[in-house]
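Example record

The entry below shows one chain as it appears in the dataset: sequence first, then structure tokens.
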Amino acid sequence: MRATFCRREKRFLVEVDTGKDRIWVHTNNSGSMMGLLKPGAEVLISPAQRRGRRLPYTLELIKVDGLWVGVNTSVPNRFLKCAWQSGLMRETTGYSTFKSEKKYGQSRMDAFLHGPLGTLWIESKNVTLVEGDVAYFPDAVTVRGQKHLSELMTLASQGHRTACFYLIQRADAHCFAPADFIDPSFAELFRQAQQTGVEMWPYKAVISTKGIGLGPRLPLLNFHR
């Protein structure tokens, strides 16, 4: 359902105007959503899958400068599994099983693939920040994201194949880089992870109100802004 963005409160609450009522909807995006939350912006909300949930809708898309931007952070891992099942990503070919939320130590990694090629551990991230044609992650300091990179580096040092899948949910990005100007610790770990052998997969999504498709893999820019 289409609505109009009014305001955000307490990180996970967004007020929208449906044209009939003002209602509160859930957003699972804990980032800042920098540059997106403009009063009056058109949004797309979806009905909650769990019946009886206190907030009956979830924020999915925000329109900025005429472009839809996907802000639902649960999409990348679901999208990754669908891409694996459909054989759309060459990086995940040769693996016969896919497990979500696989436990590793005291954490759970987003995806664990296994098959003739061995094992592959993947963390998935949602990217919504673009400046000057460059997609950046994160859009806020992320201790959790730093922890995930450290865990992937540990797995890589043990001989496992590891990767971080960045789903860039907006059409105006042409390359990808870690956001030194927002979270320098994450950016430093990002580069250390690359040197350790952690693969970085920044993919552009094709966004519309009808669904999300897989676009091209974008080049990496490793520079300090």
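Notes for this example: The first strand starts at residue 2 and ends at 9. The chain has three helices and 15 strands.
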